[in-house]
Design goal:
The protein is an alpha/beta fold. Helix content is 41%, strand content 25%. The mean pLDDT is 94.
Length: 240
């Protein structure tokens, strides 16, 4: 495939490496708003755009792909309002959009285990759940998109919680999500169910960004010829 990159930071470089290793060609990397206008001719030659930009840039990038009729894969998080609008536009306009808060195969298995555990914990009100996520100091959004996805799954599967809150001080019915930014940590997520007698802890630790990048390239390959809004559950074949 001929691919354009939206955002050319650390993740953009990793995606480039993964794409080239799988035999694809990176035609252009766009890292500024002006780049979308000056590169329009080249973009029309692209078969996919992979977006790892910023919350402020993602909505513009994805909508520009819709304008040009290019399938777009986005791993940018922290743009909830723009994402909802993009999903609506994709469905109404018959475009091709793949979004995931995390493209790691391991994390998506972690998502499923988290969902199953939250369901199993329904009868046991003596346990309290909490989420702790740790990322590098350059990450702009907090909580992470992965932590929010974990929290949303718990809310859906467990009757004890009706909303999540960012930070400490959760009341009954609220799920606490703690964010920590330190060093160059690629991403660590911990889900803890704690009682007076014991703790149950699920933990995923990313060692580098390679798994995220490969997952995004696999998503771009999978998206070819498909119309609609998709995520990792579609790619992995475990969507209910």
């Amino acid at each position: 495939m001929k691919i354009a990159l939206s955002g050319y930071g650390k993740m953009g470089h990793e995606v480039e490496k993964a794409a080239v290793e799988r035999g694809h060609e990176i035609l252009i990397a766009i890292d500024t708003p002006d780049g979308w206008m000056s590169a329009e001719k080249m973009l029309k030659s692209c078969e996919a755009v992979i977006d790892f930009s910023t919350p402020a840039a993602a909505a513009m990038a994805v909508n520009r792909c819709f304008d040009l009729g290019i399938p777009v894969v986005s791993g940018t998080t922290g743009w909830a309002d723009g994402l909802r609008e993009a999903i609506q536009r994709c469905r109404s306009g018959n475009h091709s959009f793949f979004h995931a808060p995390n493209f790691s195969i391991g994390v998506n298995i972690f998502f499923e285990i988290n969902r199953q555990l939250a369901r199993l914990m329904n009868p046991y009100s003596t346990y309290r759940a909490a989420i702790h996520e740790i990322h590098h100091i350059h990450k702009k959004d907090a909580p992470s998109g992965t932590a929010i996805a974990l929290a949303d799954a718990i809310l859906e599967a467990n009757q004890a919680y009706h909303r999540w809150i960012s930070g400490s001080g959760a009341n009954p019915g609220e799920l606490e999500v703690i964010s920590e930014r330190t060093g160059e940590v690629p991403g660590t997520h911990i889900v803890n169910w704690s009682s007076l007698t014991d703790d149950i802890e699920l933990k995923h630790t990313a060692h580098n960004r390679e798994g995220f990048a490969l997952g995004a390239v696999l998503a771009a390959e999978w998206l070819q010829g498909r119309k609609g809004v998709f995520g990792m559950a579609d790619l992995l074949g475990n969507k209910p």
